[in-house]
Batch of 4 targets.
Target 1
Amino acid sequence: MRYNKEIKDPALIQYIILFAASEFDKPISSSFLTKLILKSCNINYMDLQIAIANLIDTDHMRQFYSPNNTHMYELLPMGITALEYARREVPVYIREQISEQLEPLYNDTVMQNSVRAKLVPAGRGEFSAELSIYDRKTPLMQLSFYTGSKDQANSILKNFSEHPDEIYQKI
């Protein structure tokens, strides 16, 4: 349920932005950050944009364009530090709204990033396959197979990527 009382305090708006960006845990697009915050609480759009600009000007966040030309924001160390002190300033009902909206996205991202398989050159014309399964940031399994040929390594990578649960259970 969205918090409907309009939030006008510039400092609180900035804390909400820092909180939302930190919960996403990676660079966040401008449009997604704006929608996330406006769905969670009643902040005037212009006040939100002014607060974002202020965070950028004060080196709490940086803005950049991704390779596909998407306008992105990323928390900087000063923003992370400020949020450590100000996290409790963001009302719990707003924090919960933001977290609830991010949970489905976070779970999808965790699942996509939990299985990793990469081809690694091992020498002249030789390759190995590096396979791993993670639980969030903790490695559960890491394997490296010397295969010799690139085709063999790619075959291992494909099988592991398609059936990681079966392979994990057998090991």
Note: The CA atoms of residues 56 and 62 lie 5 Å apart.
Target 2
Amino acid sequence: MRPRPPLILERVAELLSEPANLVEPYARAQLLRAPMLVRACVVAQAKAIPRLHEEIDALRSLFSRALPLIDEPALCERLADELGAAPASLDIADLETRCDAMRTLLIRLHAWVDQRDSTGLASIRSDIWAELRMSTERRRTGLDRF
């Protein structure tokens, strides 16, 4: 038998829900939080690799558009290094590490752009804000709250 984490976690969520009918309302509400969290983890795990690849691709695209407009050598070098980096593996931890590093670089780029009063940078500023909004949408879980 090959273990399938999403199926196992779904069964765990079901098992956690069963005793909820045997307890008073407050305790029932507390017990039913665990299955909801487990299901949220299943959804997040299933979407992780495609979401991270989409995010990395979006940041690489933004960095490539920004690079010709940057006149700070250290930031140019950092952007060029990121654009020349080998693709991340399909391991979620590796993808998250890469994405975190790119997000840190995005913060640095955003700070640099915001310190300049150039109309030529308006499109990059707009692209940064658009990516921040899109990233929020990509990370949405589908559950309103826990």
Note: Residues 33-66 form the longest helix (34 residues).
Target 3
Amino acid sequence: MASQPSCQPIKGNVLCRTPAEALARFLHEGTADDYERTIAIAAFTLSLWQITQGPITPTVPSVLLVHATNDSGGDPLDAFAGEFVFHEVCELDRRLKQQEETGIERMLAHSADPGSSMKTALWSAYHGDGPAYRYGRAWSDDYGWLSGADSRIVLRLDQPEDRKALRKDLLSKSDKLRDPKGIDHDRQMVPKQLALSGSLSGQEWDRPLVEALLNGGWPVLFLPHTATAPIEIPYSPDLHLVCMQVAAAGLQFKQVTAELVLPDDPRIQYYHRALIKRLVHMPMDYSFNTQRILRELWRVCFRLARVICEQGGDSNALTLISQDLFRSTLRAIVIGVASLAYHGWGFDAGVSRERVQQLMEHLRTNGPQTRRDLQRKFPLWLKSGKLDDLLKRLVDEGLVTCPDTVVLAVPLPEFTQWLHRKQEFPVEGCLSSLLLGKKCRQEAPLPAQPLKMRRVRKPKVAVKAVEPATETRKDAEETSDAA
């Protein structure tokens, strides 16, 4: 992927009255495409979650945008998150320049005294004000992962070499990711908390990389989209101020209750059922991590909105903004989990996942195939009746089309667009537009048939009445002797 485009602020705008109004304008006017707006809001919310001081939760989710178009111009949504959340707050470019001037060895040479102010100053200058760092520059063979005082790192995939290094470490099952460690202020090796942030092209988002993340226990969220135009940011200086305000707030960690508490909203309840329906077909660790993210998401959105509304914004603004952040992010998470069907995960095809992957790989590699061609290719398990049932399920998931007698694999860009427009994932509205004196965006209606979890019932076994056994002559003799 080439260098990413910068965001384009709308010219001629004056400052907003409050940070809450600036955020409401971004939620309502950031992009005219409802599908891109969902992913942009989710990327914005989850990126703020990653950089909050504290941190706000014990674990921070990894967020990977999937730019399905393979556009050489870069990912505009990742450029937006990088410019407004990471580059502005954490100043990655300044930090990289200082690394060349000082270096880790020179910095640690002045740290003989654990409590020296020079050591603390050098460490802060080297690591900047936030936890974000480029993946390729955050690792030292001698000192492990380099981070700030709270021992957590958000690894940005800004350059192609960063994504190549991530792939190499994941596929080789490197200990640097399985058991991350690095030095602290006292030059002691301590455990580190890692989170990923960046964008992958459609070619980079392949099955080996996805399965390495799914089976590696990472709390990772994929956000697929096909956006190509840069996002226009209304009142961009105010939105910069919002991001800096959240990053400097120092939100302290609060334990989340074991019981899942969701707002009493039919749309939210619907999306929760849609998510669980997919997660039952995922690895257990990934399913657990995703449900934990959902358990923490509502509180995170509320606390982020509260920080933003402290500088001007009533309780009504707090409620509307927190609900918009949560509803859009929840829908993006559900779509991201559903997108894993492209690699054979998240649905029941009637056959094993490995066979689905073999069939889809054959179609994507060899082009259109007839049903007879597929039966010749997989003669051991793909019989006529099973093939019809399998193709019907793949069509329902948007993976193949069957015009006439030919079977075609759907490319990733078309699959992503189909997924965003699928009736199973209705578009949410924008409640915070009421703060601007405008009507709420029209919401797509929920499907007529709500999703219901399919319960596996055991077949009833008829219990036959057992007749008492007749007393044998030998038992009668033993009873009389005992008497």
Note: The longest helix spans residues 284-309.
Target 4
Amino acid sequence: MNAAGGSLYLDPEGAIVWADTDAAELLHRSVEELVGQSIATLLGADDPALDRLLRLLDADPPLGGCELRLWRATGGWVWVDAIVSGDRHPSFGGVRVFLAETPRSRWVEAARDLMLASTFDALVVVAPGGEIVTANRVASKLLGLSPEFFAGPVEAELGRRLRTTDGERVPWLADPVAYCVGTGRRDHRGAVVYAHPAGGSRPMVATLALRSADGEPFAVLSLIGGAALDEAASLLT
């Protein structure tokens, strides 16, 4: 696949009228499988990015960009910058949308084995700057938060609920990557208290680990509570 990305050609309703081979390889599909589909079928249910993209396609001229999360045929999401250039396909029409894979996809891929192996750990993958990339199902269950909370700044929801055992703000939560780089340590572990949405404060053990994918740093936050807490707490002593 061309490292720069690939192009889809979309009509004003978002139907794919043509795709080049680079876009097909990026999405793990054939050109024939893509042509005729709506771009909406590649996005998550009720993804607001669809409205942003359709507004760009409907503009005069159709120019601009937005980030999309697209589903690959072989499983897993790929994050792309979608750049609407205004160019049209000479034979099939449709506006060209150039797809460039972002580092977010590589972070998710690098963390996938951790996600699959974790039975008791709530795992949250965080990008530089503190934005949540993804989280596993255990995170939603253990923390009592629906999946839509695991988007945007990690501090927005978790920062409000997580505290140290002394009741202080967790120092690395605003930007975990910058904290690890600034302290020169790739791993941090400590006891925390979580204010659960269902009520009450629940003790947990938090582990922060700095990782990288193709030279791009990211952080993985692990939270352990409930039945697995005693074993995790023994690592602190």
Note: The radius of gyration is 21 Å.
